[in-house]
Amino acid sequence: MSLLQEVWQAVKAIGTGMATVHKRVYEEAPTEFYPYVKPDLPPVSVQSLALVENEDGSERCIVCLQCERACPAQVITIERHRNPEGKGFLIDRFDIDLVNCMYCAACVEACPVSSIVTIQDFEMSTYDLRTLRADIDFLHEQARNSRQWYSPKFGVEIRTEDGRIEKAPPEMQPGGLAEILKPAEEVDS
Amino acid sequence: MELRLKQERLFDEDIYTVHPEDYRALCEKLKADGFDFPRAVSGIDTGYGLRVTLHLTRLHDRAKVTVRTDVRYENPVVASVTDLWPGVEWYEREAYDMLGVRFSGHPDLRRILLEDEWELHPLLKRYDTGGYPIPGWEPKAWPDPDPWTPPPPPEPEAGEAGEGGEAS
Amino acid sequence: MSTMNLEPVPGRTDEMIVNMGPQHPATHGVLRVVLGLEGERITRAVPHIGYLHRNHEKIEEARTYPMVIPYTDRMDYVSGTQNELPFVLAIEDMLGVEVPDRARKIRTMFFELFRLASHLVWMGTAMLDLGAISPFLYTFWDREIILGIVEKTAGARMLPNYYTFGGVRRDVHPDFFKEVADLLDHLERRMVDYEHLVLESPVVHARTIGVGVLSKERAIARGVSGPVLRASGVAYDVRKAFPYDAYPDVEFEIPTSPDGDTYARFWVRFQEMYQSIRILRQLLELTPKTGPFKGKAPARIKPPAGERYRAVENSRGELGVFVISDGTDKPYRVKHRGAAFSNLQIIPDLFIGAKFSDAIAILSSLDPVFGEIDR
User: Fold this and answer.
1) What gap in Å lies between CA C188 and CA A2, rounded to an integer?
2) Is residue A75 located within the same domain as residue A112?
3) Segment B45-77, tens digit of pLDDT
4) N or C: which terminal CB in chain C sees fewer CB atoms within 10 Å?
């Protein structure tokens, strides 16, 4: 290859590269300026876990230990005792070690009453890992602070302005719409 | 010479269970039969001893074959097949690393994933997930020492605790 | 993993021993190769792996079958759901679970989406190794779109935990098919740019053509699979050889190249991306928009005692899993056959005799992912 050809090849390669760069400059990037613009996450996105209470403040969780058994990372610790008046169980302790949690949402999948849910709050960075060992108050607080959450049983649920919990409209629901929009089952029993 | 082996068919592959002394001879025969692509070597702790399972395939007609052989804990020596299929070199090192199977004739039998100075073989059933010996773990008695027979498949342990949800 | 270094050869004073990695950015993770260098030529090469070892196989013995699936995700972390499939297929075989046709097709669509995502990451990092920075930004841009589609359906971007025994965990998002169609249009436009930037670049030609030649016989004997094997002229693809899921329903070709050099491996991955786009286009037509997405699997997964080896063709080659069940709800033994693990064994063959700067190009053409190699 002669020198002239080599120079021409180099010029051509640089030209192609510059042309590509030029094209991209005017395209809208898929990234967001995160701290200033909060990302619009899909409702099924698994960012953190929360424990939802009923509208009247009573516990939705029936302490069946299904999530503890389903957890692959074994970070859920639950202790319970029998309800002295009435049936069922009461929670003594409900801890999730969010440091070791791998956010696979197997617990959400297993929950029969959609008490443990996934939420979109991902801003959990901290200087002290001990703050991420979530106890029941922490998990309730996360649910109170979030406006919508997702669980496979009930789909996306939203908290309205006056504090009621409702099923989100169909356009907010993810796939499997027909299944989710079935008439609501009794939760509070 | 007659090879001491048992042949069965599972799904779409032939499975040969072979005496450890004949393992090498069978592999040479399979290599001559045209099984050219090594898929994996797995070491398994059966509770009776250690088992080495070799998965092979033949690229042109896609025949699959599995060779397995069982050795005892006291003397876990299996002939290496690295010279027949150089692709099993790291898998044999891994089986040595994880279970302590010693492959005679392997060119470079060192630990591969763990440190050289590591003391135990973590995939042995006598250790728990944390690497501590499980108290009361005993190897099962080899079923029939002479004539040689392969040990039975793993059996479910009696009595599973903590079954069934109480979601009511 | 080993702290061992190469011993100097007595009487050889011109050989220098160089430790490449494990924190070197060009090693795609935590590979350490001890090199003996004579000038710029490599005379000896000993790879050491295991710096990312977590012993998945031991952990998985202590978990029930559904719990294993999220762990398999974390092996090859750039190709997401592809890792789940061999385990899921093996257990479905043992249980005899029927997978609905639509679920198979959805699984295959995700499988191919992740192949595109993984090859895009490869393209970016390989070009980064060769000294080009902008392709890295562009490929991650396109991968971002793919991961956005995955997140909308599966709930997570890289480690989705989406496949399950008998199908997939939840139905696809209503916008899924439209978004995939848009993505394919977008990628087809972008592929033209990538061809200009990568395959036709004189710099890439100079760095890769004739470098690291792997012969056909050596590739087969070493158990190399995937694009590395096909670049050496062997048309072995698990998708065709042992078809699974929806691959019998779609038409595609297996691109092979007779050259076996680094450029051939680049070229084969490019052609695979075109084939992935072609498969996805067909599946967009074939997949019913509504229907079942999960078959009837038992509530408690307890396969009968037995064993099964299943393999799939992931972005790097044959990813296999060997499961032994003892009839309980926990696997007795899970053995993973990593595609990149097998491919990495070829390092001494390719490195010895090459120049040091070529070693970087060869390594990037093998596309190792250390989550899977070290497991």
Assistant:
1) 35
2) yes
3) 887 888 888 998 888 888 889 888 888 888 888
4) N
